[in-house]
Specification:
292 residues, alpha/beta, DNA binding, transcription
């Protein structure tokens, strides 16, 4: 047997042989490997042809390894075990970079990260950024939680769920003691807007129906500090109510407000299996939250 013959042996051949030898059955091994029994039989035959030996005794209903097969399976098991340790080591060093501009949705974020890391062994690195969508496009993050509608044709957006909105004002505002506000009342007050990643702005109303006075900010910190300083009213998803984001603001229930969509944005790299698994975990967690 020369190097050219052994060069025909692939990892799939070793996995197939190990499964049949361990289970003593082509049927059970095919089911475990998620392939058809004829395909498994061809794979084993290719391995035996490449090695010029018989590895499995098929003379009875119960498949057994030949003496040569028993010798070989010891080496195959060690090789596969070492490879698995190598895979695990690489996964522990790998990570998915998840971008977000402010206040990751809960409990979705915690459930998604835990589900993905436990299933894959790959770490999720959280990246705080003022413009998460731009960072996705530039490759600074692998995926990002984005609130609002995405119009970019280069980015894929998977809708996760919708959030309710609440009004936010300074503790010193004349609105601070209001029991609730109507969505139609918001334009009567100066509106503080995060123009980079905010969910509510003049664009949230039909042309001419929005607020007359708009205070523009470029990130969440500027936005919340402007609201706390009494420069205007803010509107934010209700996740903020549970997070106690600032002692200088009050939250007011908002009636009649449209929902705020939350999407997971990423570049459509079809060969990135780890990213696909993260998206799957994200969608599953969103469905679980909806069902719960």
């Amino acid at each position: 047997m020369n190097a050219g013959e052994t060069g025909r042996i692939e990892l799939r051949h070793l996995r197939a042989f190990e499964a049949v030898a361990r289970l003593g059955s082509f049927t059970h091994a095919a089911a475990e490997l998620n392939i058809t029994q004829p395909a498994l039989t061809r794979t084993i035959q290719q391995l035996e042809d490449a090695l010029s030996v018989t590895l499995l005794d098929r003379s009875s209903r119960h498949v057994e390894t030949t003496p040569t097969g028993r010798t070989f399976v010891d080496y195959v098991e060690r090789v596969l075990a070492e490879l698995q340790r190598g895979f695990d080591a690489v996964r522990r060093q790998a990570s998915i970079r998840l971008g977000f501009s402010w206040l990751l949705p809960d409990p979705w974020a915690q459930h998604t990260v835990a589900r993905f890391e436990q299933a894959t062994g790959t770490r999720v690195t959280l990246v705080r950024t003022d413009d998460a969508l731009s960072d996705v496009q530039q490759g600074k993050v692998d995926a990002a939680v984005v609130r609002g509608h995405i119009t970019s044709a280069t980015v894929r957006a998977v809708h996760l769920f919708d959030e309710s909105r609440v009004a936010v004002c300074s503790v010193h505002s004349p609105l601070a003691d209001e029991a609730e506000l109507q969505w139609s009342e918001i334009p009567h007050w100066p509106l503080v807007v995060n123009v980079t990643s905010g969910t509510t702005g003049p664009w949230s109303w039909p042309a001419g129906a929005g607020p007359q006075t708009v205070v523009e900010t470029t990130n969440f910190d500027e936005w919340i500090e402007s609201v706390a300083a009494g420069r205007g009213l803010g509107v934010i998803p209700d996740v903020a109510v549970r997070r106690n984001i600032h002692p200088g603001v009050r939250f007011i229930p908002l009636r009649g407000a449209p929902k705020s969509p939350v999407v997971l944005a990423f570049m459509p790299r079809t060969r990135n299996a780890v990213l696909r698994r993260f998206v799957e975990a994200a969608v599953t967690s969103a469905q679980d939250s909806a069902d719960g």
